[in-house]
User: Fold this.
Amino acid sequence: MSTVSARAALVFSALGHSFAHLFEPIFYIVALVLPAELGLPYEDVLMLVVAGKLLYGLAAPLAGWLGDRWSTLGMMAVYFFGLGLSAVATGLADGPLQLGLALGCLGLFGSIYHPVGIAWLVRNAVNRGQALGINGVFGGLGPAVAGVIAGLLVESFGWRAAFIAPGVGVLATAVAFVWMTQRGALVEVKADRKAEPAASRGDTWRAGVVLTITMLCGGLIYQATQAALPKLFEQRLGDDVGVLGVAGGVTTVYLIAGLTQILSGHLADRFPLKWVYVGCYLAQIPLLLLAAALSGLPLLAVAVMMVSFNMGGIPAENVLLARYSPPKWRGTAFGMKFILSFGVSGLGVPLVSLILGATGSLTWLLLLLAAAAVVVVIAGWQLPTERPAAAQPQAAAAE
Assistant:
């Protein structure tokens, strides 16, 4: 496989990761103004995204299977075109029903990226932690840029532009992707660039059970936090913060949090994955508890650290999943992960709506998420013990 193809794969995988995390946070910002537009209470507006969130996870195994059995490049082309068209359709939607259907399409096409794009990246990478860390930064840039995009476009042109403008950008990327594929700059890859020894059957089953629990709880923390932060900031950052102020707070959190994945990816290549993974969730417990009690700038600072550790665990989690899944079924394995992380855990959104509607506050939500982090720490400690990746002969030979 050529170096040019590997680099192009990293570029389009990174762009795809940004787009995969772009539109949901845009919706959460837009949702602050939609009650007046649609004549619905905020809690009901928030529920419009639930079908899309469920499809984002539930359709992932099929997308991964098609990537494994049909074509990774073909599925990525479907992803870029489908996501871009769905975003434009969301911006053109008229009424709650059309808006819910368009958001559902965003979730359906968005489900393609993680099982296909990340499996594609893993096959191309030599230093997986580093590659996944860089890719994770772009995944973090999605929510970060979403706050700025949504805030500016909503204030300047209305909520519809917040979906249509980035949708057109995704469609332009789709055209570039197909053009580079036809020129041979992107090629289909079915085998790992850096092969690793297969894990034992016992370790594979053990890791599979543990990761099922930790990905479910970790995904719940990520999904619920992303849905809750705009409203949390609106309630606690100050009376005159406004939509742009909320968007700026969300952007700050996810921009800084996304950048930390370079460091966590580096650590995943140098230290035992279990230590890195469990450590990220151990750090979240006191931060979630503090977020439940704070307001103003201290809340913003704690939110930055809280989300940074949540996102910091993702590269280690993805390397663990790649290590304990057969290469020919890796897309399917990542698809199963995102049933848990984005499908089942997507129920965190109605959980936010339920708790907010019942209490008028998000305090109990943050306490519940702290309990989920405790579960991840306890379960994650049962992962198989392994040597640092840098100490393995294969890694040394590759370097």
Observations:
- Confidence is low (pLDDT under 50) at residues 387-399.
- The two ends are 17 Å apart (CA to CA).
